[in-house]
Amino acid sequence: MDLAAVLGNFLDNAIEAVLRLPDKIEKRIDINLKFLEGKLLIKMRNTSKPFEINFSKGIEI
Predict the structure, then answer these.
(1) Residue 58 has what DSSP assignment?
(2) Is the pTM for the entire model greater than 0.70?
(3) How many angstroms separate the Cα of 55 from the Cα of each of 11, 22, 27, 39, 59?
């Protein structure tokens, strides 16, 4: 899978979640990319309700 497509999808989802928040709540998206021990770690957070996905064991289709 193309890395740009994965990052784009993550960002699209984060934007959609933030846009659904009420006006009085801060809308923010934080993105951290880190290369560690031969792996790319991606951490994306926004101010919507927390949701965590762990892809460390791969993705089942």
Answers:
(1) -
(2) no
(3) 16, 30, 26, 12, 6
Q: Is 56 helix (H, G, I), strand (E, B) or coil?
A: coil
- Which pLDDT tens digit goes with each residue over 27-58? 999 999 999 888 888 888 888 776 677 777 76
Confidence (pLDDT) at 46: 82
Number of Cβ atoms within 10 Å of the Cβ of 44: 14
Other beta carbons within 10 Å of 29: 15
The one-letter amino acid code at 54 reads N
State the Cα–Cα distance between residues 3 and 55, nearest whole angstrom.
14
Q: Which two tokens stand for residue 14?
A: 């984060």
Cα(47)–Cα(27) distance, integer angstroms: 6
Q: Are strands 29-36 and 39-46 parallel, antiparallel or unpaired?
A: antiparallel
d(CA 35, CA 45): 18
